[in-house]
Specification:
With 259 residues, the chain is mainly alpha-helical. It contains 9 helices and 2 strands. 69% of the residues lie in helices and 5% in strands.
């Protein structure tokens, strides 16, 4: 399996790609915080946030389809968690429906909260996709470490990214072995038991591999510090990028307070 799931386009050249990962991390965090703190009634502010993201996507020279595909994969999970809000939120009833023996009502305030959550989630997801698509994952981890994130968390994220592909390959091999033994021909209960055995086997193999990796790292003098060949350099261009984006976010926030 190719190791390019998150940072598939990180090796391209653009104004955004050449920026320091630390600056992009700070701007992304500030953008997400600004979006989350925006009142649900400020739809113009959401439009301005989207304009900011659209400009950054254009500067990154990445295909728009890349952002749409990845964001649409995550949005259904957000919708699954927020879809029941219109039915339980108190307020003016927008519609009432009969479901067998129950009568459920949808409120205007609940629908507004639902669309607000979806808008915030989509804008935040777009910003994260832009970050991971314009910076290598090792660069992001190194930036997080230099921004004083706990080393344990950085190390866990590093191992997660390195070994998720290996575990995926392991699952695919187990699935191929299962299918070659006529998995679909048995009873449902037997199939459920087989899947449970596969999950247990995968857990044991992952645990044993983790022990072997840890033993080999200790034998090589691992001191808890992640070392990479990539060197980060914070320049005036990065400071200008943070200043411009920070000014834009503050301006949108002040516009919300005034309006």
């Amino acid at each position: 399996m190719k190791h390019s799931f998150l940072d598939r386009y990180s090796d391209r050249d653009s104004v955004i790609h050449r920026l320091d990962p630390r600056g992009k991390l700070v701007v992304t965090l500030a953008f997400i915080v600004a979006v989350v703190l925006t009142p649900f009634s400020s739809w113009l502010a959401y439009g301005l946030y989207f304009a900011v993201i659209a400009v950054l996507i254009a500067l990154s020279r990445l295909p728009v389809s890349h952002f749409l595909k990845r964001s649409l994969v995550i949005i259904p999970f957000v919708l699954l968690m927020a879809v029941f809000i219109p039915f339980f939120k108190e307020g003016e009833v927008a519609g009432s429906y009969n479901l067998w023996l129950w009568q459920v009502s949808v409120t205007h305030s609940g629908l507004q909260v639902l669309w607000n959550i979806m808008a915030k989630a989509w804008l935040s997801i777009l910003s994260l996709i832009l970050l991971t698509s314009t910076a290598s994952f090792t660069g992001i981890l190194k930036g997080l470490e230099q921004l004083r994130m706990p080393k344990v968390i950085v190390m866990i994220m590093s191992f997660m990214y390195r070994y998720i592909f290996l575990l995926t390959d392991e699952v695919l091999r187990m699935k191929q072995a299962r299918d070659s033994r006529n998995f679909g021909g048995g009873r449902k209960l037997w199939q459920i038991g087989t899947v449970g055995n596969m999950i247990g086997t995968l857990f044991i193999r992952s645990y044993e591999r983790g022990e072997r990796v840890y033993a080999s790292m200790v034998a090589r003098g691992f001191d808890g510090h992640s070392r990479t060949l990539e060197r980060l350099c914070f320049s005036r261009r990065d400071a200008l990028f943070i200043a411009v984006l920070g000014t834009a976010l503050i301006s949108i926030g002040l516009f919300n307070l005034i309006s």
